[in-house]
Design brief:
391 residues; 2% strand; mainly alpha; single chain; 3 domains; transport; MetI-like fold; 14 helices; membrane
């Protein structure tokens, strides 16, 4: 503004003239990606053959299912609303990283989780689904040897009456000859899908309900919280069992049932944090400037409760992975998709003779859950300066 231009008073500004639908680049990029995915989905729907036919890279091809499309959408959400903000706000990201790396166990755990995510994302495209091959049964991991007379049959090399592992099956085989390495990699695929898709459903619904209830208040808050009370006492597990009885086990069913009916705790947690933020000065300034409810929630409340959401996310994902593994162990999951719980259950009767069948996927499951706990503690200390971990 030049010195000669007349000064405008606060009450003279037409705040209503600046209202309207204004998309940020981040949201515009996500919607554009979503539109492109919709076109590819339509093309795949009308196409009779699989979108990715078998080739030297994809051994068995890749026929995209509904779960695959949900996973791709979840990846787009992760990229545009997690990675893009981290890349945009470099100074804040550098500050958080300095605080995060003080916990060395969390740094190692983050590296392990990145490895699991990469193998779960790319590995299933490179390994084929293990087939039953009784001539390869009960092979121990490479470098180990067991008495060939204890497992009734051994498909590996037998030297001096002992069955030795081979590099063909580095982690050994199951009682029906399935490669445990392939089962572990395919189990990673199940874990990242469960963790990413279900958690994004829970976080999206829970964060929206929690912030709206906290900021709007009154009757809206009362209605939403009473619905949360009803939902939290609703037996989601019994509904899942009923759907399994009617339609059979399905990973998509697990994601939809527990993703759409398990966000009550997240909503309460976000509401508690949003109530504190609603009384801050910057929110009052935005209200006085004429900002609408939607604008305040999107630009001021949600970004400032993101620390609570991220911390809750690191606790939510391992719980979902462990819950799915438990259901698969009890044969209540999808029998057509190999998972860690399913592989652990397959070797429970052979623990004394072929311990590696249950132990190897069990170790990966244990390390994944433990890694999420370490990362969650470090993120809470880095994002919340009031936590006990900050000195």
């Amino acid at each position: 503004m030049s010195l000669d231009s007349p000064r405008r008073r606060f009450e003279d500004i037409d705040w209503e003239a600046k209202r309207g639908i204004v998309l940020r680049r981040q949201t515009a990029g996500f919607l554009t990606t979503l539109a492109a995915l919709a076109l590819v989905f339509a093309f795949d729907y009308v196409r009779e053959a699989p979108l990715f036919s078998p080739n030297p890279v994809l051994r068995d091809g890749w026929d995209l299912s509904q779960l695959d499309w949900l996973f791709v959408v979840s990846l787009a959400l992760f990229v545009f609303y997690v990675l893009v903000p981290l890349a945009t706000h470099r100074r804040m990201t550098a500050h958080y990283w300095r605080e995060f790396r003080k916990n060395r166990a969390a740094v190692v755990s983050l590296g392990f989780l990145l490895l699991v995510f990469t193998l779960g994302l790319v590995g299933p495209l490179l390994v084929s689904k293990p087939q039953v091959e009784l001539t390869q049964s009960y092979q121990p991991p490479v470098g180990l040897a067991v008495d060939s007379s204890v497992p009734l049959s051994c498909g590996g090399d037998v030297v001096d009456g002992r069955c030795h592992g081979s590099w063909q099956f580095p982690l050994g085989t199951t009682g029906d000859g399935k490669d445990i390495l392939s089962l572990v990699v395919l189990g990673m695929r199940v874990s990242i899908r469960i963790g990413l898709i279900t958690s994004f459903l829970i976080i999206s619904i829970g964060a929206t309900v929690g912030t709206v209830a906290a900021y709007v208040g009154g009757l809206v808050d009362e209605v939403l919280m009473r619905y949360v009370d009803i939902q939290q006492v609703f037996p989601s597990f019994l509904l899942y069992l009923l759907l399994i009885y009617l339609f059979g086990g399905s990973l998509l069913m697990f994601i939809l049932v527990f993703g759409l009916l398990s966000w009550g705790g997240t909503a309460r947690l976000v509401r508690s944090a949003a109530l504190q933020r609603s009384e801050d000065e910057y929110v009052e300034v935005a209200r006085c400037a004429g900002a609408g409810t939607g604008h305040v929630i999107r630009r001021h409340i949600l970004p400032n409760v993101s620390g609570t959401v991220i911390t809750n996310l690191t606790l939510l994902i391992p719980g979902l992975i462990l819950f799915e593994a438990g259901l698969a162990f009890l044969s209540l999951g999808d029998p057509t998709i190999p998972s860690w719980g399913q592989t652990i259950a397959a070797g429970r009767s052979d623990l004394r003779t072929a311990w590696w069948i249950s132990t190897v996927p069990g170790v990966f499951l244990f390390l994944t859950i433990l890694a999420f706990n370490f990362v969650g503690d470090a993120l809470r200390n880095a994002l919340d300066p009031r936590s006990e971990g900050q000195r």
